[in-house]
């Protein structure tokens, strides 16, 4: 490749893994003035497809393009590995990325293991809190997959969908997995079935011949799912022609956000065995574990009982790795976020089930800078930051300018290597404890 061209334009930050050659065209990701850009060099007809700034030099032409949606669409056409796909009955791990900048860190973790990643995983509720669109979620996953040249395939999970309209916007954006949440109908089992069937049929209509993954989640109910309810739901759905890829029961004990399992592990094992057997007897779909991050004490049980035939979802835990990166690199800004979160906590906890006790969190003004990252090992501080993310991202000053979000994104961009390293190590620990098999290391000669 002609790197001299880039030198001439003072572009020195090249994401080497991203360099992709397609016939006479080279595509790659660079950082220019701290902003990630796509560079396309070579064939003029292909250059013309992308929106960007063209430079003609004697060595040839190149185009520098913003990572906008139109360009992502052309990228997905040219580099099919950047497009999400249904994963079917293969085991999956959901790496929710609320900020839209964590996926490269996730790739560093998952490429060591034999499991299919779901990089774009977002619920409608999260979208309203992060202020992102379904298309942005799909696009940022594609850019990340391109950045690190992850060619093993990944899925995109439209999580906790409640209405036909939810399905429509997520299907149009290109999601490949659809998680239906019938919790609004949970008082009446027949209504639950009716609703899920309606959602499924609508999706079939939208997708035509295209395959998709279909999950039913009853995890956000107030009682653990009984064996009898599980059997009822799955048999009725199968009778109605619904092809379930995974099902998320509500398990015994507590799966609180961002912290370890709370409850009796032996009881959990029994409950899991029961649900696992039902799944085996009724078509062998996967059990799905929601709020699945940081449940280190039960991962070995989950891996063993399900024999790895699972789907696990995580999201907020990656946001906490972002916050840890802030605490490590920008202590004053961390303190600011922390104090804001404290003010918001009582209001924001209303939509979560957590047992956080703020009194157990040390006062940040008494902590040395170097002690701040340690807070992300303390369960109450973890939940404090976890639950208030929507408020932090949306907070505005009196002129309507975002108070924290842009600064947060800037820091994570500046220190992305540290951020990715934290994500890699934290998520690798998840996969390791779940007993996911490691990929053989390829030996280079
Ligand atoms: Zn859920």
Blueprint of the fold:
Layout: H1 3-8, E1 13-22, E2 25-32, E3 35-41, H2 44-49, E4 53-57, E5 60-66, H3 69-78, E6 92-95, H4 103-110, E7 116-123, H5 124-130, H6 134-147, E8 155-161, H7 164-173, E9 177-180, H8 189-207, E10 213-217, H9 227-239, E11 246-248, H10 265-281, E12 286-289, H11 299-306, E13 310-314, H12 316-329, H13 331-348, H14 379-387, H15 389-394, H16 405-414, H17 416-433
Parallel strand pairs: 6-7, 6-13, 7-8, 8-9, 9-10, 10-11, 11-12, 12-13
Antiparallel strand pairs: 1-2, 2-3, 3-5, 4-5
Helix pairs in contact: 3-6, 4-17, 7-8, 8-9, 9-10, 10-11, 12-13, 12-14, 12-17
This protein binds zinc ion.
Q: Strand order, biggest sheet? A: 6-7-8-9-10-11-12-13
* SS-based class: alpha/beta
Number of domains: 3
Rounded to the nearest angstrom, the distance between the terminal CA atoms is 22 Å
- CATH architect. name of the largest domain: Alpha-Beta Barrel
Beta-strand residue percentage: 15-25%
Summarize the main sheet: 8 strands, parallel, barrel
The shape, in one word, is: globular
Tell me, rounded to a whole number, the average pLDDT.
95
Total number of beta strands: 13
Heteromolecules bound: zinc ion
What's the CATH H-level superfamily name of the largest domain?
Aldolase class I
- CATH uppermost class of the largest domain: Alpha Beta
Pattern of helices and strands: HEEEHEEHEHEHHEHEHEHEHEHEHHHHHH
Helix content: 40-55%
Question: What is the CA-atom radius of gyration, in angstroms?
Answer: 23 Å
Low-pLDDT residue spans = none
The CATH topology label of the largest domain is TIM Barrel
Number of helices: 17
């Amino acid at each position: 490749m002609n790197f001299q061209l880039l030198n001439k334009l003072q572009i020195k930050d090249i994401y080497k893994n991203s360099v992709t050659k397609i016939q006479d065209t080279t595509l790659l990701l660079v950082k220019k003035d701290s902003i990630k850009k796509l560079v396309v060099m070579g064939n003029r007809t292909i250059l013309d497809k992308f929106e960007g700034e063209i430079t003609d030099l004697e060595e040839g032409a190149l185009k520098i393009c913003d990572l906008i949606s139109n360009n992502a669409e052309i990228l997905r056409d040219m580099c099919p590995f950047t497009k999400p796909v249904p994963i079917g009955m293969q085991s999956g791990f959901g790496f929710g990325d609320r900020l839209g900048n964590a996926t490269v860190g996730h790739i560093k973790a998952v490429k060591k293991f034999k499991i299919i990643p779901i990089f774009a995983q977002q619920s409608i509720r999260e979208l309203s809190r992060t202020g992102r669109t379904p298309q942005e979620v799909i696009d940022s996953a594609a850019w990340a997959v391109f950045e690190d040249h992850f060619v093993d395939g990944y899925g995109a999970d439209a999580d906790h969908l409640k209405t036909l309209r939810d399905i429509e916007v997520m299907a149009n954006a290109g999601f490949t997995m659809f998680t239906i949440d019938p919790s609004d109908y949970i008082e009446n089992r027949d209504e639950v079935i009716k609703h899920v069937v309606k959602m499924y049929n609508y999706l079939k209509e939208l997708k035509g011949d295209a395959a998709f993954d279909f999950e039913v989640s009853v995890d956000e109910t107030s009682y653990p799912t009984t064996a009898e309810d599980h059997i009822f739901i799955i048999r009725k759905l199968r009778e109605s022609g619904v092809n379930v890829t995974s099902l998320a029961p509500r398990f015994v004990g507590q799966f609180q956000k961002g912290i370890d399992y709370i409850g009796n592990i032996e009881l959990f094992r029994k409950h899991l065995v029961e649900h696992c057997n039902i799944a085996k007897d009724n078509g062998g779909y996967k059990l799905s574990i929601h709020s699945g991050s940081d449940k280190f004490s039960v991962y070995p049980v989950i891996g063993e009982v399900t024999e790895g035939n699972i789907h696990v979802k995580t999201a907020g835990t990656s946001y906490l790795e972002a916050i840890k990166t802030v605490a490590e690199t920008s202590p004053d800004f961390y303190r600011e976020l922390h104090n804001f979160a404290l003010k918001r906590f009582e209001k924001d906890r209303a939509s979560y089930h957590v047992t956080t006790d703020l009194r157990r969190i040390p006062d940040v003004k008494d902590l040395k800078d170097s002690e701040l990252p340690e807070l992300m090992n303390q369960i109450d501080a973890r939940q404090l930051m976890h639950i208030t993310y929507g408020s932090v991202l949306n907070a505005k000053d009196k002129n309507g300018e975002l108070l924290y979000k842009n600064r947060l994104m800037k820091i994570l961009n500046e220190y992305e290597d540290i951020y990715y390293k934290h994500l890699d190590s934290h998520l690798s620990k998840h996969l390791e404890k779940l007993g996911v098999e490691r990929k053989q290391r390829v030996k280079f000669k």
